[in-house]
Design brief:
alpha/beta; 7 helices; 174 residues
């Protein structure tokens, strides 16, 4: 693509992914987006603590707050650790998770895929041809998440975590 990558962390939360990417790819333009002002406050503090001042933090939903010049098919990579817990799973989550994370940062509709559906459709509009979308999924979601990709995408791959469980979907635009 020539020049530094443009990366969007959709639903950045505390900013860990955006910060790690900025440290590994110092020339990249990185945007961390979250709808929670509280999360973005934490992300900014974490960026300062970990010397990642170049991340641009934007408040809003999904890709809406991106500047138009970036939003128009110019993004190289979209990453996300999205909410993916089904609503009926919330009461059964371990207390160390349920009691320390905001519900809306974890739960995403009846099947846990509401945000992921929006992530896939929104990414199709902001990624350049050959751009990548990478996002975390929950247990048992690999088939349903992979099925969300239609024309305009290469067949997504499912990457496994260290325990061998399907954990990340990686898909590339055509």
């Amino acid at each position: 693509a020539g020049g530094p990558e443009t990366i969007v962390d959709a639903g950045t939360g505390s900013g860990c992914v955006a910060i790690a990417l900025s440290r590994e790819l110092p020339a990249a333009r990185i945007f961390g987006i979250d709808r929670s002002r509280t999360a973005l406050r934490a992300a900014r503090a974490n960026a300062a603590r970990h010397s990642a001042p170049s991340v641009v933090w934007l408040e809003g939903d999904a890709f809406a707050p991106l500047p138009e010049r970036v939003r128009a098919g110019r993004v190289d990579i979209v990453v996300s650790n999205p909410p993916y817990i089904a609503a009926d799973e919330w009461p059964r989550l371990a207390p160390e998770v349920r009691d320390h994370e905001p519900k809306r940062a974890l739960v995403s509709g009846r099947d846990g895929l509401d945000f992921i559906r929006r992530l896939v459709s929104g990414s199709a509009g902001v990624l350049r041809p050959g751009g990548w979308l990478l996002f975390e999924i929950g247990a048992g979601q690999s088939d349903a998440a992979s099925a969300l990709f239609g024309n305009g995408w290469e067949v997504p791959s499912v990457e496994r975590d260290l325990a061998g469980r399907p954990r990340v979907i990686a898909a590339r635009t055509r």
